[in-house]
Amino acid sequence: MMQKMSLKRILPGLIILAAIVFLGIAGYRFMGAESFIRTALSGLTLSALYFMVAAGLTIIFGLMDVLNFAHGAMFMLGAYMGWQFYTNPTFLFGLLPLILAFVMGISTTGLWIPVVSKWKITDKGRKSLGIVLVMIALALVGLGFWKFDVLGLAKTAMVTAMNAGNPLAEASPQEVLSIFWRRPFLMFLSGLLLAISAARPGDDTQVIPSKKAMPWVRLGILLAFTIAAIFLRESASIAVLKMNGTLRFFLALLVGAGVGAGLGSLVEVSLIRPLYSRPFYIVLLTLGLGYVLREVIQLLWDPIAYSMDVPPLFSQPGKAENLLAWFSGQNLTINIVGVTFPSYRLFIIVLGSLMLLGLFLLMRYSRLGMIIRAGVQDRSMVEALGINVKSVFSAVFAIGVGLAALGGIGAAPFIPVTPNMGDAYQMQGFITVVIGGMGSYGGAGVGALMLGMARAFGDFLALKFNMSPAIAEASTVIVMILVLLVRPSGLFGKKE
Amino acid sequence: MDNILTLESIHTFIGQFHILEGVSISVPRDSITVLLGRNGAGKTTTLKSIIGLTPPRLGKVIFDGEEVQGKRAYDIAAKGIGYVPEHRAVFRNLSVMENLKIAEKKRGDLDRKSDFIFGLFPDLKRLYKLPGNHLSGGQQQMLAVARALVADNKLLLIDEPSEGLAPILIEQMMVAIKELSKTTTILLVEQNFIMASQLGETFYIIDDGKSVETGKMSDLVKNEELVKEYLGVSLGKSGGAK
Looking at CA atoms only, how far is residue B237 from chain A in angstroms? Predict the structure, then answer.
């Protein structure tokens, strides 16, 4: 019986493998070696990108039944943040002290709980106090940004990108410290008020966190970083720009993913958490959030398409004859079994594969992964084991959005960076998730592979037979329809 | 007597349905207390109200001298309550080992307890690496109970452990629960009256969402009228069927 069950489990995989082998041989005979390999490689590149978007979507949906319609916008945001860091990080370093100060304020929540939970307030007073605190906090944020030249900061990278001039010349329009110090201070105050409100004053039924030194240590570290960020606003961006381009690029990947993860957890805690009992509202919320993010980006950097430079590691002139030669030459293109292929696209394929591997290791061997897998099946039982599933939710949202943002900055060097760059990928991401089965990251991997290949070979066929390129665009949807006809819950989805 | 758990007239709603309309029970330490009642009387909801999965809207839940009603489920569980839900809700896509590991409340709980657990359920040791969905119904039920033993729980809430089990497995489960009661307190929901009457020391009958009768199990077994009225079991028949 056991053999039968495991056979059933891997059956979809086997069928897909057989289909791929069959199509592969057919394509190889029909297309000829060179164009077949070239098309397959571009298919893999697309697959890697689709996977980066779909992975986050599917784990978020699997654990908390949230369809994140802002995922494409977060992909785009990752691309913009990474591009900023790579081209001219003045904007990021200008905002960093404010954000750090704000986070520092919020991180005091645990310290407030023992104090404010003892306050004697009526239920009604508690509610209005919460509203008042949040309102004042928002006003303080507004005050913190009062007459702050955010647009000016943002334009620095634009100037760099448009004129291809020396970015260092544009790197320092920061405010003088004597004016600037007020902004992080106000942000800290605002965070502090939000922390008090989050500590639920007067609510003495809540658990008081155990007295460990941790919150103070965390606060100290944040304080140190904030002060450093205030003083290093200008020099840090100059230092980053003087860095080796390759190193800067890899740091940009981290920055993109980090901003994505930070935004993800912020969105989960502040916007999505109150709405878990109203799933339909969450759909509208994330949809709206996507629009807001696109508009904000458009406001900051105008609705123009930017092209980010391919980092030096992948842009030395010439063609590497094999992988080893590329390591020493770092050439723009690389020879793969007789096909000339851009080395950066190869990097995307590697990045996508690493993400799949990383996700696999996380899900399979970490306690967090164990809790996620268990929570996908039965959330309330996980709670009944003494595990705070809600806090796992924020982690999962952060990971999912972080992956999308990493995908965005990874894609930035070869697709135009525009406010709408994520939309198409979000669409393909959803199709990938549906094909693979909601909640299965392995399914997302297989689905992404199928879609990427369908798209690449669809493009090839459309070109060959002089058909409209719309056929290639439709090919992914056709794959989805075929899969859903056979398996309505996706390849690896749970049977409803 | 010293009670580890006291429910003071709790009222629980699921959606708009008023499921519990005043359940009051006391669970004495280091013994087995059994909740009896017909299907749909509210036994499972009582357990869920204790652990906070369906928090009561009125009334008090006092665990180990502390009011826990209204707290989140993970908080209540962390205070030392182990919950074995009905229908053997093991995590099907986690291995047996992971099913146990996830129940750790402190690092190393499983290492400390594994000998004890495998002593009670030797089968699980053999199945250690298998995913939960490869286990038979009986093995899943044992895993569900074993999972509640990993952490040092002061109270176990066990919901219908004999449901759908073969007679020989029921026997094994009874031995295990008896063994457990030596070290911890157990609140048991059980439809199988033979099993309930052999295990329990104290009983409570829940009917239509209210706790209606309580006493010593040894007295209940003698009181045919009461059993017939609330449980719909005829003692003569089922008692002799064994």
Answer: 37
